[in-house]
What does this fold into?
Amino acid sequence: MSFQNPVFIPGPTNIPERLRKACDMPTIDHRSPLFGQILHPARAGVQAVLKSETAEVFIFPSTGTGGWETALTNTLSAGDGVLAARNGMFSHRWIDMCQRHGLAVEVVETPWGEGLPADRYEEILTADTEHRIKAVLATHNETATGVRSDIAAVRRALDKAGHPALLFVDGVSSIGSMDFRFDDWGVDVAVTGSQKGFMLPAGLAIVGFSPKAMEATRTGTLPRTFFDVHDMARGYANSAYPYTPAVGLMNGLNEACGMLLDEGLENVFARHHRIAEGVRAAVRAWGLDLCAASPDVYSDTVSAIRTPEGFNATDIVTHAASKYGVAFGVGLGEVAGKVFRIGHLGSLTDVMTLSGIATAEMCMADLGLDVPLGSGVAAAQAYFRSHSAASVLKAA
It folds into this structure.
C-alpha cells in the first residue's frame, strides 16, 4: 500500500493534516485544568454536530462497538425486550451484542440492500401492549450495504404506537457526514466513532444520551464499569476522566468539530451527497448495480457495488491494493464476494474521488470485466462539472 494515495474504505477515513497535527501533541497532565480546555469544547462540538441542545455527550477511549455497549449496559436490564431489524452486517453485530448481554431481541429479518421497515416496527410496537420492548435499535447507515434508513420514520412508528421504548441509533458511518437530527428525531442514544465523519484515527466511542435515556440509566441493571456514564459524568464535572483519557484524540476531536462547523453542516452534507452522486454516476456508466435496492435508501457515505454473477468482487479489492496501492472495502457477511465498497466520506474531494473511480476501472479491466476505461470517470466528471461546490452554494 502507498501512504500517498487516499483510502476509499468506509472508515477509517483520510485524516486531514490539520487533524494529524492536533492529535500530535505533547503529554499533558490529564488531571490538570488544561485538559478541561480540550474536554468541554469537544463535548459541545459533538452536541452541535448532533444538532442537539439536550444530548449529554460521553466520549470513551473505544470504538463504535464500545458505543453500542454503552447504550445497552447503561439503560437496560437482563431479559429486557429489544426490537431490531437485521439488514446488514453492522445491525447483525449489534443484535449479537444484545443477545450476549441476555436481552430478548425480536429480530425483523430484512433483505440486505433494503432500509429499516418502519411500518413493521409500528405493527410490533402497537401489539406490545405490555411494553416488554424497552429499546428499538436503528442503524442509520448500514455500512456493509450502502443503505441509509429513515430514522424520522422509525420515530413516527414509535409515536403512532404510543410506545415508550428508547430509540437507539447507530450513526457510526453517518454522523458528521450526513444529516443527523438528534432532537428532531427523538433519538435517545446516538452512537458514533472518531474514525469516520470526524476524520480521526479510530479510538473514540462517541455517544449522546437524551434526558429520557439518562433517566433510564437509574434503573438499568446490566453490569457496566468501563462504560458507566455516571462515572464519566462525575469525572467531567471535575474536568477529568475516571481513568486515563486519549488526550491527543480528544484534542483532534475538538479540532474536527471546529472544521465541520466552520465548513457548515449543511455544506458538509451537500459535499458528501455530491461526491456520492458522482460515484453513482460512475457505477451506472460501468453497467453495474448498487447493493442498495432503490435511490431512496442510497447512502452518501459508502457505495456497495455488485459485480456480475460468478465474479469474486473481493478480487478487485485485493488487486487494487497489490498493484495500485489503493484501498477499497470488501463485501461483508451475506454480500461477501458479491460486492466491493467505495467509501466516500470524511476528508474527500471531487478530485480525490475521481482517482478512486479511475483505479476501480483499471482493476476491473485488468481482471477481465467489460468496463471501458474512462467510462465511469467521464460520467463522474460530467456530474461534478455541473454540480460543483460553488454552484451548489450559489443555488442554496
Q: What stands out?
A: The two ends are 40 Å apart (CA to CA). The chain has 14 helices and 13 strands. The longest helix spans residues 265-286.
